[in-house]
Amino acid sequence: MTERNPGEDTGRSRDRRATEARILEAAQAILLAAGPGGFGVNVVAREAGVDKQLIYRYFGGLDGLLEALGIRLAQWWQEKLLETLPEQPATSYADLIERLALRLLHIMRTEPLAQQSLLWELTGSENFARSLSASRTRMLGDWMARMRGNLVPPAGIDASAVNALLIAASSQIVLAGRNTDTVIGLPAHVPSTWDRIERSLVQLVRSIYREV
What we know:
Elements: H1 6-34, H2 41-48, H3 52-59, H4 62-83, H5 93-110, H6 112-123, H7 126-147, H8 159-179, E1 182-183, E2 186-187, H9 191-208
Antiparallel strand pairs: 1-2
Helix pairs in contact: 1-2, 3-4, 4-7, 5-6, 5-8, 5-9, 6-7
């Protein structure tokens, strides 16, 4: 009987992780360049320089690859959210959501990958859109669990619905401003417009979550 060197298993595991990472990097690059319409197992395999059978072996096929990519993108969002943290913790739930809303708006405005991931949620396949949405929900939940401490919204406020509306509105404004000169009457490519949007976002958060 041939003895197995424990280092062989470690080497295989390391090689597999490296290959999986290369496949996911290729998948992300394709989606960033071409969107969901240019995505497929064959295209990803060529971009990654691997046999397409490895995608089936490691991810179970296209749906598994998209799910793994959704998780990767959620981790990317989490890292971006945590890049710039205030020195002092939030003092109220309104302060907490104000920080989150402004940070998300900044990421969406300045990061092409953020904008593309938002578009993929709207235009990608059902499975991919579901994976992205679920991953982003987990990401926001993780951030809240880490940052909120014992802060809670005022009584009578449906915080989940309110926060969803704030984030969805910011997403729509950013996406609409990519390809048009105006966003519902506001000049999209004028810096002062985004200053106004930020101020208005803060006013909304503070008005909704004001302590009675």
